[in-house]
Write a structure and sequence with these properties.
Structural class: mainly alpha
Strand order of the largest sheet: 1-3-2
Helix content: 55-70%
């Protein structure tokens, strides 16, 4: 029932993208172009990229390879990946040097993306966006906006043809996260180019799927608030 409702709201694609991404991040067997094999080459590309965008900046970071437990059942495995995604693909600026968690079996494009996060935060704009994303007060304000602003827009706009406006407003409330992820992918692709490991169309599609998974909450919030808002408006 939930699937059919979300499908009617037009959010099937983002939710599917999230599941697709988790499937690739949680690989129990290494793919051909895996992160473990490419780590040293990507590290050299990362050094070149940091020198290009901010000469003299530190390019040091720690990396932790985390492989899924091969003894878990399929259900236990995918439940683990869904609930502990950060163990298999994440980066953090906390501590010195910053660090990356990555599943070495996963596609190298995910390691490129996490390196892209570290590179993005070397720039003034990237650092600002990441700081806004991590700010608890701002996060609460944005979550509040995702619930109220799209609903207000739907109530003020006559008729029931205002879904696009509601979803757009909810996406704006998620802007720091979306921009941070998009910038990380951009830097990640540049790092891969400078490593001699140019991303294929399929690898770029995986990054796009990841970005869609971050957009899903905005789509759901916008669609849901839109429906509620339309209960209170009157067609003119």
């Amino acid at each position: 029932m939930l699937v059919s409702i979300l499908g009617a709201l037009g959010v099937t694609a983002p939710l599917a993208a999230g599941a697709f991404n988790a499937r690739h991040i949680g690989r129990r067997r290494p793919v051909m172009r895996n992160a473990g094999r490419a780590a040293n080459q990507l590290d050299r590309g990362f050094d070149k990229h940091i020198d290009d965008i901010k000469p003299g900046a530190s390019a040091e970071y720690g990396i932790h390879f985390e492989q899924p437990d091969p003894n878990k059942t399929n259900w236990e495995h995918w439940n683990d990946v869904r609930n502990n995604t950060n163990q298999y693909a994440s980066s953090t600026q906390v501590g010195s040097p910053p660090g990356i968690n990555i599943n070495p079996n996963a596609d190298r494009v995910y390691l490129g993306h996490e390196l892209g996060h570290l590179a993005s935060q070397k720039t003034d704009v990237g650092h600002l966006v990441a700081s806004l994303r991590a700010n608890p007060k701002l996060k609460n304000a944005l979550l509040g906006a995702m619930v109220t602003v799209p609903g207000v827009a739907a109530a003020l706009e006559a008729g029931d043809d205002d879904m696009d406006s509601s979803i757009a407003l909810a996406a704006l409330a998620s802007a720091p996260t979306l921009v941070d992820e998009a910038m990380a992918s951009g830097h990640g692709l540049a790092i891969m180019n400078k490593s001699g490991l140019r991303a294929s169309l399929g690898q770029r599609g995986k990054l796009a799927g990841g970005l869609l998974s971050y957009l899903a909450p905005a789509v759901i919030a916008g669609a849901s608030a839109n429906t509620v808002g339309n209960l209170f408006d009157e067609d003119i």
